[in-house]
Amino acid sequence: MTQFLPIIEELADAADHAARARWLLEVPLAVIIRDQVAIQRLLSAAGFHEGLGYFAAEIAALSATRGRDGLAPNTIRMTREGLAYFAAEIAALSATRGRDGLAPSTIRMTREYARIGIQIIARGGSEGEKHAAAG
Asked: How far apart are alpha carbons 100 and 31 in whole angstroms?
């Protein structure tokens, strides 16, 4: 028995990146927010960089000031949705190509997509800031 709750223990026991990706896509968002430190440590220890990118996008979306439409800014939503797609691809590719059998282009595209999204947010290009300035 470890210090983790059973749902976090599932991530700790994940055999490969595909299992980690499936876990990230299926776990309740409340668990991601509540246990973000433990999840970040487990993903980092496993060297699952793509999962860390998706995880950071989820945290950003859950923590963002929402616009008048009640949604996170477009830049955050786009980054989150794109990284969710790549997490699903990681799970699918690993299942068909064997353990962590990722195509290098998938990894590069995921990192590049995350980097672009973070740069846009860092430059203040998020819609939330534009709405705040206009309001």
From this structure: 25
